[in-house]
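hi! just following up on the protien thing from before. the input was this:
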Amino acid sequence: MSGTIRIHATQTHLKGCIQLPSSKSESNRALIIRALSHGFAEVENLSEARDTVILEHLLREMPDELDVGDAGTAMRFLTAFLAFQPRDFILTGSSRMQERPIGPLVEALRSIGAEVNYMRREGYPPLMIHGRNAKFGDSMIDIPANVSSQYISALLLIAPTLTDGLSIRLVNEVRSRPYIEMTLRLMSHFGVNTIWERDMIRVPRQPYAAGTYFVEADWSAASYWFCMVALSEQAEITLLGLRRDSWQGDKVVTEMMADIGVETEWLDNGLKLTKDDLPLPTHVHWDFTSCPDLAQGLLVSLSALGINGRFRGLESLKIKETDRIAALQNELRKFGITFEEKRDTHGPFWELSGNFNPTKATISTYKDHRMAMSFAPLALKVKDLQILSPEVVVKSYPGFWDDLEKVGIGWAFVDSGNT
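and the predicted 3d structure came back as:
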């Protein structure tokens, strides 16, 4: 699938049942644990997202040169995983991946005895990893916790296999805390004991135990269905595969979207979403520090509903698949919406303002799956909405466009020759 598609709502009353894709966050962590356990840790219901497919392939084949493409989690997790394998590796990725920083993780690995060198630009991939030269050094490291939680998770996953285990001191405010907690819970599921007290996480040396983990559906993917319900006139959508006791931080979407008219009813095998008829707020204040992957979809939906707001916790969006702040600013501007970065004594924040103009628009996706899925719900408000490069959704939700049709949102190629 490539080219440009036009999305149109065939009805404003959305109804259907969706089997959500499996969580790539859980899948990718579980794959590293499986590799470190030498296969004794088993994983069921693995994600079919491209990021997970890439990571599983590379862990299975273990070539001398590993290319993760644009899979950021794979880059971070493999950097730590390969650092203490008894071989040498080149770890590289797409041109955008080579612009995404890896320095804090590399410095942390060097401090515990790894030999990792930059092949081009200091602080960025591609990397030359001399696993055969690794020496287990210090068992305590400091790492910034306000840049990427994936650095911390990458270190935690290998920690029980190190000679003296590992103690990690988290420096600065912890961002995306739920992702660190997810990592620790998965480690615990496979028998690894950890201690998290204040700013210190301690992981003694110990083996991963045999066991099986069934991957939950993806809450980040679920968030786009919350957005569609919010923009509909009426809706009744069932989402399968989600757990009420989920380890995924993006579950907080149930609370956030309740503020703008989306009701959640828990079922035995998932949940049902409906639209209430209560008045909407004119302004909201939300903090995305613990759930940055929700930001794009929710901000677009707020814009279309005429809700202005002030938001924090968006700093990490600048170093994702694209600069997501700039991408949102560019695309929201097409509808008369302003998204500005400002600063006060508490640090940066972003303001969303303006009156939504449901004009014909073509949305650029910037090679970012979340841009495509975040703007797709606007088909319920915009009569002529086109999405460029719709194939980007394969990174996390390959069946997204097909699932849209199940609830009454159709799509077609603008150029029928592009199939």
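Residues 24-36 form the longest helix (13 residues).
The mean pLDDT is 94.
cheers
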